[in-house]
């Protein structure tokens, strides 16, 4: 694995470093990011797309006031569920911020569980045409009324190449692909794999890991804590807006089913835990494909990360 002083020869001329902290949900990315930010006396860019929205706090595990005070954070509740905010928007905003931060810092930390958002900043996005927002609105309506399965079937039919590699359990990915297919008449996969821009900084990945049983136990306990903190009330306040894209996510959709009388509260909470565990499994599958990640144990993350980075 590459360290800060042991980088790819093609990147040796780059003097600025983005340290990216990754790992499954609930593993402790926020804590390690803060510890690293304090060590390097720098700032943190959040790459958790669920934490972007002001209206979503408990169910997205937004860092506490104490954590936010411990190190400067960016992209935490900086927008609203009522305004569209895409991965392309994040890429543009994050790169602009990095330009500013790197004028005074040699190192910046980025942390979060949204792999596509991290990839956008580090590598750049594939170029897709702009499509009318009505396509996504229609797809979200179909998701709300008929569920994910019919959309999965459609994507497998119109773009089997992408369906074979996509995270088909993630409604955001399925809807994003289908809106491109419907709007352009071309496959989503046909827009993938084009040359991407080079970044002016080098990137070092630190991944936090643990035994699967421990990861799942941490997730279960975090869901219980969220419910104790008032997640039910938070979700109830957002129920009228349940069709919005930002709310098509674990921790809210399950409670919306409870409010609609489809599920008991006990079952809804169990489903949040189950779906969160599935999400963690998908995150790990995504991350394991990245050979640049240096993995550290969650209970010794800072020491192992610094040993690698310095």
TrEMBL record:
Region (Interaction with substrate tRNA) location: 48-51
Pfam families: IPPT
Needed co-factor(s): Mg(2+)
Positions of the record's site feature: Interaction with substrate tRNA: 114, 136
Keyword Secreted included in the entry's annotation: no
Top-rank lineage group of the source organism: Bacteria
Annotated binding of substrate, by residue: 25-30
The entry's keywords: ATP-binding, Magnesium, Nucleotide-binding, Transferase, tRNA processing
Gene3D superfamilies: 1.10.20.140, P-loop containing nucleotide triphosphate hydrolases
Residue numbers binding ATP: 23-30
Reactions accelerated catalytically: adenosine(37) in tRNA + dimethylallyl diphosphate = N(6)-dimethylallyladenosine(37) in tRNA + diphosphate
Gene Ontology biological process terms in this record: tRNA modification
Any one Gene Ontology molecular-function term assigned to this protein's record: ATP binding
Name of the protein described by the UniProt record: tRNA dimethylallyltransferase
Gene name for this UniProt entry: miaA
